[in-house]
Amino acid sequence: MVDMTTRLTEDGGTTAVEVRGLVKHYGPTKALDGVDLDVRRGTVLGVLGPNGAGKTTLVRVLSTLVQPDAGTARVAGFDVLKQPRQLRRVIGLTGQYASVDEKLSGRENLYMIGRLLDLPAKAARARADELLERFSLTEAAKRPAMQYSGGMRRRLDLAASMIGHPAVLYLDEPTTGLDPRTRNEVWEEVQRMVADGATVLLTTQYMEEAEQLAHELTIIDRGRIIAGGKVAELKAKVGGRTLLIRPSRSSAAPAMVAAIAEAGLDGVAGARADDSGLVSVPILSDDQLTAVVGMLGGRGFGIAHIETHLPSLDEVFLAVTGEKASAPQDAQDAQDPGSSGHAADGAAGTDQKVEVSV
Amino acid sequence: MSAATATLTGAPAKAAGSEGRIGLRANMRHIGALARRNMLQIKQDPESMFDVLLMPVIFTLLFVYVFGGAVSGKGHQHDYVDYVVPGLMAMMGMNISMAVGTGINDDFQKGVMDRFRTMPIARSSVLIAKILVEVGRMVIAIGILLGMGFALGMNIGTDVPHLLMAIVLSLFFGASLMWIFILLGLTMKTAQAVQGVAMLVLMPLQFGSSIFAKPTTMPGWLESFTKFNPLSNLADASRALINGGAVAHSVWMVVAWSVGITVVTAPLAVARFRKRT
Q1: What pLDDT was estimated at residue B132?
Q2: What DSSP line would sit under B59-89, residue for residue?
Q3: Digit-coded pLDDT (tens) for A290-342
């Protein structure tokens, strides 16, 4: 494993994953239609896209499970087509469904993978225990994985991917189908891995997840990269959050909109009210949120409810491309065994509720 | 194809770009770890041993008491034991190897296969480990079958080494059949479909053979069919090895079938395993 680290350095590159012109067609479906991307060493690249955008196919090509029709992809300097065996030594993969043996206990799963990675029996056992501890699975270590909760399985899956200290980790929708609490646990683990120096390629349908974990973002749709850059840059493009305010009396909404426009708060513009009397204000920072709410309070407006709303994937698409996200292409998800059981819940945005009593 | 063969034998290939090849010793270790997985699965799911434990008992009782009288005459069922138990040995191997196909198919519905295929191990090792454990299951089934046979009065006309040879021959043939069923399991979409096709192929092979009745009592066309049916060859070989009689022809036929089946289907199965997405 030391070997591979030096290898990365020897290559002199800071690029851990390099993809150029990658194409993969399944019949008429263009799962990947000329994808270029780079993941810098030690960073997290978020690949954001709706169902069927080609995210899973990308991960499967990069982990040697699927051969591309055209283009090149190199991971830690190894070519996916020419050096698949070397490449498999430096990667770890966690899919949207747990790739562990359900009939085996957590410990036996990790021990088996350690042995398959050529660890001596003793070292494999020690590594298994170490990771069980780290992923808070020690208590459940002897139970078969089929008895684990969704979050425990996902953690076991992450642990399994970590055994060989992979230089590059693929996380394919790591939190799809998880409840918010478990999702946070998984996020924490990923953040720890990154702090430990892992390079991560993360696919997700959730803007919020990409924001939490990724340094850079690539937006993919119908097999093509449609936007990319630093998370902050993309967010600025999209326009940050939306602040939703429900006045105590809905008839006050127009007056509220007028007050916001008139107050001329720094960078706050474009407030409007809908028919139900809900006021929405695009905001870019917490300061703006505080200023708007403070100003309204100061002017004696009664507020029944406020919340902020991150742009949904749909809104990001709208902002980036000016068109709606494409309908899911089921064809390529069908290529993916096991995904059916964990159908993703669509390209929904994430609501971040910040309830404030005024 | 050559790549598949090299991986199968575990020989460190000297082909171009062999860097990263899996050495023989590492390959054995991987197979060991994977075989352990298969055994732990059985431990977790003891019901999966029911076929191995009960099939030999039920088949022996059924065939000896239902057909024994008809074939050897009422009251002479025990003569049929000597005839049918070596035949059932051939059938046992076939039935157990069929389960490998459904097992592999089932495995593929789960994500763990993806993990194996993204790991630096020879892809054949997953299949070989499965076959090893299944051969172990066959040994148990044959042991129970012979135990039943002896309990019902079966005699060994030869000696123990010949009996052991018959067992080894059944295992050898059974292992070669597993490659066919693995190939089926990897090709078809669902485990049920694998089972369906396997039954369609197996029924005529099993009954159109010398396993249960002497082919000389069958119509000419069927008798000719049984001569080329590898299950007949295996049943005849086992019978000759256990009861005594001319051994050479049928044994060589079985060896030829086994080697032929393995050489053709094993590389196909490994290639299919590699390609399956």
Answers
A1: 93
A2: HHHHIIIIIHHHHH-TT-HHHHHHHHHHHHH
A3: 899 999 999 999 999 988 877 766 666 667 766 555 544 433 333 333 333 33
Fold assignment, A2-236: Rossmann fold (3.40.50)
User: Across the interface, do A117 and B119 touch by the CB < 8 Å criterion?
Assistant: yes
- Chain A residue numbers touching B32 (CB-CB < 8 A): 115
Here the ipTM equals: 0.80
CATH class of the A241-309 domain in this structure: alpha beta
Contact yes or no for A86 and B108 at CB 8 A: no
- The CA distance from A262 to A299, in Å, is 12
Model pLDDT, residue B13: 34
Query: Taking CA atoms, what residue in B is nearest to A124?
Result: B33
Per-residue tokens: B108: 């593929």
Q: Please report, for chain A, the start and end positions of each structural domain, with discontinuous segments joined by +.
A: 2-236, 241-309
Q: What would the pLDDT profile of A63-82 be if each residue is shown by its tens digit?
A: 998 899 999 999 999 999 99
Q: Which two tokens stand for residue B104?
A: 């592999």
Domain boundaries, chain B: 24-275
Does residue A99 contact residue A145 with C-beta atoms inside 8 Å?
A: no
3-state secondary structure of A27: coil
In total, chain A counts a number of residues equal to 358
